[in-house]
Amino acid sequence: MPARSDLATDPGVLADLAAVRLGTAYFRRALLHVADDDLAGPSLLDGWSRAALVAHVGYNARALARLVEWAATGVENPMYASPEVRNEEIAYGASLRPIALRNLAEHAAIDLDVRWRDLPDERWSWTVRTAQGREVPASETVWMRMREVWLHAVDLDSGARVRDVPAPVLERLLRDVVGMWSRRDAIEVAVVADDVQVGDPSSAQRVVKASLPDAVAWATGRGTLPGEDPAPRWL
Length: 235
Ligand code: ZN
Fold this sequence. Notes:
mainly alpha; 8% strand; binds zinc ion
């Protein structure tokens, strides 16, 4: 029987679930501020229409739901069959009429949330594999979704701003991005953002100082900083 409240008991997982639901509501509001006629217009992501972005966010929820299903059943269920399938479904979603596209995004988000709610406590640590090939516990799907909904709400360019994103989410994003540069590209960057410090300024090749929202906008390729070169690529 489906549960009416979360089966997870880990305080960290429960806090993340609360945060992702806030982000989902924020994305929903940002999308409500896009008129149907403006869906075909450009998002802030280079080369992406708003419709393609909404389709991507919807299909991302479906892909993460497959990982939650994997954790629930123990049967491998990858996010996407292939990168081509992922791109094809985004193109298909972007071609839908506005009402159908909005329904896709809404239903996919609700379905993912129900799967999280009903995932038994002991299954949250089950190892699943992301589209990038990283092996992570099922609980990581909540953070993966959090990044998507908060940042892509901003990308819709309908009034959402990086400075509206809660500071703990911004700090975690910054740690993710700086960690990725270090691991993947051996680029050591330290960021001093308000009272948050990421990386080691004494050994970094590059030290960036900015407010936390400005630092995240810069680090994720969504803004520039005076006197700074563009950030290295993130994803
Ligand atoms: Zn995305």
